[in-house]
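Complex record, three chains
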Amino acid sequence: MLNLFTRRALQVIKGIPEGKVMTYGGVAALAGKPGGARQVSRLLHAMSEKYDLPWHRVINARGKISLKPSHGYELQKALLESEGIGFTRDDTIKLSIYLWDGVFREIIEEK
DNA sequence: CCACTGACTACTT
DNA sequence: CAAGTAGCCAGTG
């Protein structure tokens, strides 16, 4: 059985809507373990297929794709663009626009 | 059970 | 800006 943090992290990842992204650290924080970014990366690496995760919606804290070219980078970028996410000139995603902060952000912006 | 690994991050040189 | 480093810690074999 998976431990609590892992299960919550998987939930968080599955909860990222189309057209939005989250950082590894962000997912870890929402799952209850700030600083657990590395575990999140590990989860995606090892379990994205088995648990059918929208793995492409998780990027690093600088707004860039962490995968290396020819090792998923292009695929991830294509998937994100197909959801309407835009990249800047140097392949950076503007977190101020696309970052999914969960329901809290939704509520704040609805006002 | 133990060691290894990892798509991270913030901070310091 | 680039490079190094110390935390991070659970799935996997």
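Note: The first helix of chain A runs from residue 4 to 14.
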